[in-house]
Amino acid sequence: MPPRISVPIKARLPSTLRVNASHPSVTKSLGRLSREALLSLALDWLDEYAIQNAVPYLLPEGDEEDEDMDDLYPPCRSVSELRQLYVNMRQLKGSKRDVVSRITEGDWRHGLTLFQLAMADFAYLDEHQTSQRWSSYQILPLQPPTRSTEEEDEEVLKVDKESLRVPRFHPATFLQQLQDQILPDVKAHYHFHRTANLPVLLLRIFVVHSGVNDSNALHTKSSGQEEASFDGSKTVYLAFPDGAPAIYVSRPTATGGTVPGDSKSLQTLIVEGVPKALSRARERYTLKSTNLQSRNLWALLDKRGSGRTNAAGGGWSIYVNEKEQKTPLDSALTLPPPSKDDSKGRKREWPMSQAQQEEKRAKVIAEARFGDSSTMDDGRGVERVEVVLQDPFPQQDLTGDLEEDVDGGSGDNPRRRSKVDTVLLQAQSTLDDEAADTTTSSTWTPPVKIAFTGSHVFAGIRQLVEAGMVDGERMPGWMTGEEGVTMGVVRHGRIRGFKGSGL
Amino acid sequence: MSTEAERLDEEIAALKADVSKARQQLAVETSTIVATAAGQTLLANDATLRTYAEKQAAHLQQNYHRIVTPVTSFKVIDPDPHAVDGGHVLALRFEAMTHGRYLHQYYVMLNRPYPHSKYLRVHRHTIPPAIPLAGFAARYLPSPKPDSETPPQQDLDRFARAVRREVARYHSRLGVMADLKRTLFGRHQEGGPVADDVVEVNMADLEAKQIALTWADGRIGRLVMDDNGQVTKMVVQGAEGRDWELEREVLASDDSTMEDVVRQLQQYAAREG
C-alpha cells in the first residue's frame, strides 16, 4: 500500500467522502430514526439524483459464483434490485434495528458518505422539528466604507439605518463565499435541504477540525488513530426563511465526544462568517441578534418571517387578520357580532351571576389583549421566555410616573445580548449609574429575573387571563408576546429598546 | 348508525351555512335601508335604531375616505397599561389594490415615546419585510437629538408617501408576476409544453424584483425588474452555457416592459415549436 499523502487545502469536504459504517456517530444518527423514515431515506439514497453520492455495495461483476455463504446480507446485483428490496421491506413488519444493520452491515458496509449522513440528519429534523434550538438574527445593511485605503480594516462600519436595500440570498453564491470565510484548519461539509411544510431553506454545516479534506480528515481504516478528529466535529444548522431578511442559527451539537466551550466559538464563527458571505461588492451586511430563541421554527417565522405578523403581535394581530379586513366597498356595518353568546343569552332564563359576568369579561379582555394570537393550537409557541425587571419595587400606585424619563433604551445602549445572565450582570452595573436618574435614589430596585417555560408560553398566559388568574387589564404588554422577544430587560413596564416595532 | 350520524352532521352543517348566509343578507339589507333618506326618517323616533343609523353613517363616511385616499389615519389606544403617552397611537392605513380590487390593508402604528417631545416613532406595523420600512423611518422619522444644535426634522407626510409608493410598487410587481404566469402557462394547455415553453415562474427575491424562469428543456433564466417594473436584465443559462440568442431576442430594447418580454417569449416558443 503506497503511503497516502494528505495536503492541507481550503476546499470543502466532498459529499462522497465515506465514514466508516461502524463509527458510533453513524449508528447514532441512523438509530434515532424511525423504521419508516429509515426505509424512505434508503430509497432516497438510491434515487437517481442521489445515487452518485451514496453508492451502495453491490456484487462485483463477474463475481457471481463466489457468493459468501456466511454473509448475512448478500449484496444485490443492481441498484434497481436493491431499490425493490427496500420497497418490499416497507410492506413487511420488522424492527428498525433490522434496517439499521442492513444498511451498515449490508448495503453500505463500505461506509456511509457525508451526503448520506446529512440526509439522515435532515430526516431526523423532519421527524422532530423541535429538536434544534434556533436563535434568530436580523440581516442589516452596513454603511459603505468611507476610506478606500488600507486602513479600511480598522474602520468599524456602522449599520446603515437609512438604507432601502433589502438583502437578497442566493444559496450557491452564499456557500462559495462562506467557504472562503472558513479558516483552513476547519473542514466543513454543506448540505442544503428544504422541508416540505416549512418555508425555510435549511443548510447543515458539518465541521471537522482538520487541515486535509480527504478521508484522512475523518479516520484512517488501518490505524484508527485519527478517529479523534472526527469526534471533535460539530453540526450546525442555518435556516433561511423565504422572503425575510433574517437567518436562524441552531446551537451547534457535537457529533462524537463533547468538546466543552467549543460549540460557542463555532456559533460565533458562523455569526461572523455569514454576513460576509451574504455581502457583495458595495453591499455589506451584518447580523444582529433579535433576542428571540425557540425550538419552534414557526414561532420564529411568525416574528421574523416574511409575513405581516412580525411587528404586530398580541392585540395588534387583529390588524393582520384577513377576515377582519374589510374593503371600503363593503357598506355593511359589522357590529360586535350577534354571536353565539347573544343567542344563548336570550335562551337563558336567569340573569348571569357575578362569577359568570366576570368570566365573560375576562374572556373579552383576553381577546382585546391577545387578539387572534397565542391560542393553544396555533403552533407558534415559544417554550421559554426570560425577562429581567429593572423597575423599582412598587411602593405606591405604579401608574403615576410612566411618562417620565422614558429614555435609556432608545439611545446608543448596546442592544445585543446573548444571554439573560449577562444581561442581568449588565443590569446590575448600569443600576448604579442610573440610580440617580430614577425618581429617588432610595427606591428599592431588586434585580428580578422571571422565566416562563412551557409548551406555548404566551398561550398559557392567555389562558391564565381567561381564567381570571391574571388581571388582563393591568398585565404589562410584554406578557402578550407582542414585543417579539424571548429575552429582554423590562423598564417602566416595557421591554427596553422598542423591540415590538421590529425595526 | 354512522350513516345516520353523518347525515345529521351534514344537515347541521347545511343549516349553519344557511344561518350565516341569512345573517349576511340581513346585515346588507339593514345597512342599505338605514343608509337611505327614507329609512332615516322612519328611524328618527327609535333611540336604539338611531344610534345604529349614526354608526352606519360614520362607517359609510369612513369608507368614502378610504376610497378616495389610499392612505388614511385613525387613532387607537394601546391596550398595554404601561404604554407611552397614555397609550395614544396614531395609525396609518395603506390600501393595496390592483385591477379595481382591494387586496390588503397595511397598517403602521406610531406613538410618541420620547420624553418632552412630540416626535413620532413606529410602534407596530404590518408591513412585510419586502418593503424597507426601517429605512423610511430612519429617513423621515428620525429620533430627536436633544443635545444637537440642528435637531432632525420629522416629516410624516413624506414618510406616508414613501411607504405607500413602495407598497403599491410591490403589489404591482407581484401582479406582473401573476400575469406572467397566467399568460405563459395559458397557451400550452393543449398537447403539453414544447421545449421552448416556459414551465415555471418563480419569485427569486423577497422584493419581487427578480423572476426565475425555467424552460421545458431545462434552461433556467432570470429577469430583473427595476423599481418601475421595466425589465432591465435577463440571463438565460442552458446546458451548454449562456443562451445569448434567446436573451437578445427577448430583451430587444433597453426599456422593455414585462408585456414586451411575454410577447417575445411567446413568439420564440411558437416559432420553433
UniProtKB/TrEMBL annotation, chain A:
Output compositional bias ranges, type Basic and acidic residues.
339-350
Spell out the Pfam families in the cross-references: CENP-N
A GO biological process this protein is involved in?
CENP-A containing chromatin assembly
**InterPro entries from the UniProt entry:** Chl4/mis15/CENP-N
Task: Name the source's superkingdom.
Answer: Eukaryota
Q: Where is this region: Disordered?
A: 326-362, 391-419
Q: What is this protein called?
A: Centromere protein Chl4/mis15/CENP-N
TrEMBL record, chain B:
One GO cellular component this record assigns the protein to is:
Mis6-Sim4 complex
Coiled coil location: none
Q: Name one Pfam family in it.
A: CENP-O
Name it.
Cenp-O kinetochore centromere component-domain-containing protein
Q: What is its main location?
A: nucleus
- Its family? Belongs to the CENP-O/MCM21 family.
The places in or outside the cell where this protein is found are: Chromosome, Centromere; Nucleus
